[in-house]
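If you are new to this repository, start here. Below is one unmodified record pulled from the training split, so you can see the exact layout before writing a loader.
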Amino acid sequence: MEERCPICVRVGPARFDAGRELAALSALGGEVGAVTSFVGGGGGGGGGGAVEGIELEHYPEMSERVLTEIAVRATARWPLLGVTVIHRVGRLRVGEPIVFVGCASAHRAAAFSACAFLVDFLKTEAPFWKREVLSDGSQRWVAARDSDRLRAARWRGEGEEERGEDAWEARSRRGEGERGIDAESRGGEEARRGSWERGN
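And here is the target side for that same chain:
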């Protein structure tokens, strides 16, 4: 029987140390050749008005289970050696880190793709709800974005990646080489980071 990689999922109000989480993934064993991560911050103000705080609500009996299921799907798709997913809840200040996603693998392509996959599905499937608290005392809910749903749909083969290939696999098949992959990964991760900070 193939051994399943260790999966660590935590949901709660406590702050996390991204450096410590990365060190733990790097220390999983000699086979680890790449560790990738994503840290999503609590942005605000996209709908106008001064945002003073953010409140994240969730279903305690569901949130950790759903995050674990998403992580298991990632380990089934890529050869991962470890996955860490942390999602904070409760009242947070604007700019505080909310989400940490980390992936360890022997290969950087798998680590990059799995990290992007996890972020895209956290945005669309995880049972969390974000509410912005404005300086005048009013509050507003932050709705999910169509662009997030489209990114998640591509992983299911409903968009550009109809044959189940992710960006790494498709570019390798076309022979565009690692230099093109590096450029795409940097641009894609920057776009995802900006989207998360503005709309998570």
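Two things worth knowing about this chain: The longest strand covers residues 80-88. DSSP finds six helices and eight strands in the chain.
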